[in-house]
Design goal:
By secondary structure, this protein is mostly helical. It has 8 helices and no strands. The radius of gyration is 29 Å and the shape is rod-shaped.
């Protein structure tokens, strides 16, 4: 199978991580609209931008994956870092209200985690974010951010494995060109042999080729210090 130059890419809307990041973004927009002042508070812009950065970088990373695994890995890392920033904002909101995040074994935290595992889409959460109080939504968002963060970490590990397997685009282009040159060589050699008018001439042409290959191999061995 020929070495691929452009790798599979796109399809980000089907990714569980992207679907959850969309929920994180939409939920943050609603949260800010409900609980933060419309003007004069830079926190709104920062939170919305961090949430948007997460989903946008997932999308951009997948789009870039065809030609640059390095870019995909970097952008997925940016998406994950944006979630870290956003989580701090929600933790700050709880601290400002004198509250702590739900403990991991709290029944509310367990219920939120279970719901988030199988309900990644915004429509699954729209009513929740439109109706629940601020502290509840902060905790739900922490759960969503944590799960999305874990999914992105898994994506990065897979992307790193793909990079080790396929390399960068320059490596793939070089490999593909080398394969093409090898095919051209094979066709040229076959054509030279096929020009023989009889078996004796075929044997002579084959012997000339073997001698030429031996000379080339000898030169390579000497250049590499193997002989």
């Amino acid at each position: 199978m020929p070495t691929p130059i452009e790798l599979p890419h796109g399809g980000y809307r089907k990714l569980f991580a992207y679907r959850k990041s969309e929920t994180v973004y939409q939920g943050t927009v609603v949260f800010c609209r409900r609980f933060l002042p419309a003007r004069g508070d830079r926190t709104v812009d920062q939170m919305v931008q961090a949430a948007r950065s997460c989903k946008q970088n997932i999308a951009e990373g997948r789009a870039a994956a065809g030609t640059s695994k390095e870019t995909e890995i970097r952008l997925t890392g940016v998406a994950r870092a944006s979630l870290d920033e956003l989580r701090e904002d929600y933790l700050d909101r709880l601290k400002a209200a004198g509250q702590e995040p739900w403990p991991a074994d709290d029944a509310r935290a367990v219920a939120a985690r279970e719901r988030a595992k199988s309900n990644p889409d915004w429509e699954d959460w729209r009513e929740v974010f439109e109706t629940r109080p601020e502290d509840t939504l902060c905790n739900i968002m922490l759960v969503l951010c944590h799960q999305t963060h874990a999914l992105l970490s898994g994506m990065i590990r897979r992307q790193e494995e793909e990079f080790r397997k396929f390399g960068g685009i320059r490596e793939r282009m070089h490999a593909a060109r080398a394969e093409a040159r090898a095919e051209e060589w094979d066709r040229a050699m076959y054509s030279r042999l096929d020009l023989a008018d009889n078996e004796a001439e075929l044997a002579r042409r084959a012997a000339d080729m073997r001698a030429a290959v031996d000379r080339a191999a000898g030169a390579i061995r000497r250049r590499k210090g193997w002989s």
